[in-house]
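Same chain as my last thread, 255 residues:
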Amino acid sequence: MKALIVEDERPAQEALIRLLKRDFPDLEIAGVTETVSDTLAWLRTPGNQPDLIFMDVELTDGHCFEILQQEDIRAKVIMTTAYDKYAIKAFEAGSIDYLLKPIDETALQRAVNRCRAGLENSDILKLLQHVQSLAHERKTEGSPYRKRFIIHVGKNIIPVSTEDIAYFYVEGKDRYLTRKDGRIFYFDQQMEAVLEELDPHVFFRVSRSYIVSIHAITGFERIFGSRLKLLLSPPLKADIIVARSRVREFKDWIS
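reply #2:
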């Protein structure tokens, strides 16, 4: 059996590959792609015919559902994501199974064995109940919000606690996070996806380019046009401006 892994986060790629090699040594990883466009190009390359596709829902340039809409895929699809909200849409799109990240080894074994058994149809009700139950268990174990980010710096892997993050920002096409101690790290997750994982009482999206922690704000001043300029620690070279349309929401949040 040949498998294609569609996943834009390297740690998630590596974790899935490690589990597959350990539990299914005879399964061949035929390819790994990270975007909608790269996946479509891979699938359209002669000779690339996977039996199974592990497909992350949220990719750098869109959602995996775009791949299913643009390409006639005959391989069995197992969708993977950190969120349970896509479950119904995933099964409607023909997914055989739906795995919540971090991927549980038992759930992965179940999903792959379903594909190997040649099951074409899912018992959607049972799978939805399982996904919802697992999501509930994870939330009741503690805070549902992300506790840390795993950052790759060369050959090193650095865990950055969410409590230590001052802000996230976009510069050109690149995305960065800054710790309270001023150290800056590149990261490859979309800002929209990051925001969904953060505690909204602690982090506020000032604009498309900036998400700030309440603990990094040392003050703010009113500027022309009834806007607000934030004062941050550690400071940023660029001015962080709260648009007039968001000033009320910002004040409600910070108070």
